[in-house]
Amino acid sequence: MPTYKTWIWVCTPLLALGAYFLALASFSAEAALALAVATWMLFWWITEPVPLFVTALLPIAVFPALGLMPLSQTCANYGNSVIFLFMGGFMLALALEKWRLHRRIALGIVYLTGTETNRVVLGFMLATAFLSMWISNTATAVMMLPIADSVVRIFGQQATAQQQIGIRRFALSLMLGIAIAANVGGIATVIGTPPNTVMVGYAAQKLQYNVDFGRWLLMALPFSALVLYAAYFLLVSVLFPNGLPKFDHAAAYFRQELQALGALQGGERRTLWVFAATASAWVLRGYLPWHITDTEIAIVATVVLFVVPAGAKAENPSETLLRWSDTERLPWGILLLFGGGIALAELLGQKGLIQRIGDALVLGEQGGALLPWLLLLVIVVSIYLTEVMSNVALVVVLLPVLEGLSRAMNLPPLLLMIPATMASSCAFMLPMATPPNAIVFAGGYIKVREMVRAGFWLNLLALGLLWLWAMFWIPLLFG
After folding, report:
1. pTM of the full predicted structure?
2. In whole angstroms, what is the distance from residue 139 CA to residue 131 CA?
3. What are the tens digits of pLDDT across the range 312-323?
4. Is 421:183 a contact under the CB 8 Å cutoff?
């Protein structure tokens, strides 16, 4: 019997050929060929017969061979400045993890929020969201899960038999809270999650619009905070109220874990200074006395990490904060994925396909009246499609379509593109929707039906808040 991949190998060329011959009725042969290649790549990105990053390399092999784009121009897309911005963010995240600064930050936030069970959930969500703004949401969830597991076990040991139902509900709200916070925390910064960087790169390359770090933070951080708090209230007060008392031994656990880390010194202290300086420069860049881009700040921070020694109190004082061997854990494939998406968008734009999408949607001046309903449709499609496909692939697929649609409606493209990008990180219903969901599901505390039940309401919550954001706050900053 044919396997899943066998069907994909058979269907891919058939779909590409079908797209080519259908396009010939309306486009030139060259544009039809570009559409066929795009169909091939998009189908592979959705079905993933090979890793997403491998599909992203197809432009280098295919575009020049078919005469669609010269090799030098194709490869230039993989050197887009936004890709280096994200690489700098990855380097900073590697340093935080190497010197265990992320663990200290997480434990510190949770310890400060108190040991009453609902406040513990809030503390974990705040810590997870903050870390996810700067490092991979996957890495954040992986780090927080064992800490949360230890807390659940400690509470479970202190609870009476009658309180075990409450412990079960506490565990559910804690684990789901970590997944939610890891997802929405990444929305808050340009480097927080790959879809953000894909969108920013597309805007810079195709729209010649620079979405700077500070403006994105001003737009997205309040949204992330609202979703985070609303999700916290929904989890602990509506979906899984636990009714548990305060467990004093939890404070001792957090204090013990913090003490085990020791005093802040050596490489950890110096990494904190680099991190604080970089984040401050990103936020305050517009007020600095000299012109510098977010990408330049990221690369300067990267160089500093490889130059500054760990200090006399480190095990190896001559060791720098980062060594090249540390970059083995850097997700290089994500950077290739950005390049492939930008190259595909460049090709579609050059061949006039994006413009034709807009021309086909003749809404003209009346388009503005349809904006509220169109925004709602875009957000709904993005949220529920990302439950079953990669959020990066979804954004790569949607951005050219939304650009063409917005031009047909005489609207700034970012008014549709930003909500779609943010919505792609709001997938809470299924374990396979995002890595944080899968990680907390693997912890064994959550059943699929419980995640679906909670995720259904959380998706509606995010949908409503994002629609309001897209109607009022995003146009104010980007309209």
Report:
1. 0.71
2. 9
3. 666 666 788 898
4. no
